[in-house]
């Protein structure tokens, strides 16, 4: 199973196993990763699953689509590598993915 590492705003890393076909948000929730609230349950309607994709992974993960980009407008401290992790589908290629959760969600 692809491993995904979540780094919190203080630099503490937690590596969890993701299920191919599910989302990075679901991996976080299943493993009680702090900083990912996912209040809307993955409907792209809350922006509480905001993460920063690590630089080297940004091209692999790809950019946000239009609906996600609209929702990111409601998140704070949005950066070029911001994504809503409920919209990142886990594939085998994402093994080793690292994302950082924003301080506001910590
Ligand atoms: S869980 Fe609500 S936008 Fe991702």
TrEMBL record:
GO terms for biological process: P450-containing electron transport chain. The keyword Nucleotide-binding does not apply. Keywords: 2Fe-2S, Iron, Iron-sulfur, Metal-binding. Pfam families: Fer2. PROSITE patterns: 2FE2S_FER_2 (PS51085), ADX (PS00814). The keyword Metal-binding applies. Residues 2-105 form the 2Fe-2S ferredoxin-type domain. SUPFAM superfamilies: 2Fe-2S ferredoxin-like (SSF54292). PANTHER family: FERREDOXIN-2, MITOCHONDRIAL, FERREDOXIN/ADRENODOXIN. This is Ferredoxin, 2Fe-2S. It comes from Methylobacterium gossipiicola.
């Amino acid at each position: 199973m692809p491993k995904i590492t979540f780094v919190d705003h203080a630099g503490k890393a937690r590596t969890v196993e993701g299920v191919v076909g599910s989302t990075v948000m679901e991996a976080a929730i299943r493993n009680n990763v702090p900083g990912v609230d996912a209040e809307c349950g993955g409907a792209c309607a809350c922006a509480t699953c905001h993460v920063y994709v690590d630089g080297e992974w940004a091209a692999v993960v790809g950019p946000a689509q239009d609906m996600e980009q609209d929702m990111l407008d409601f998140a704070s401290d949005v950066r070029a590598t911001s994504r809503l992790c409920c919209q990142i589908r886990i594939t085998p290629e994402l093994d080793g993915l690292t994302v950082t959760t924003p301080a506001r969600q910590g």
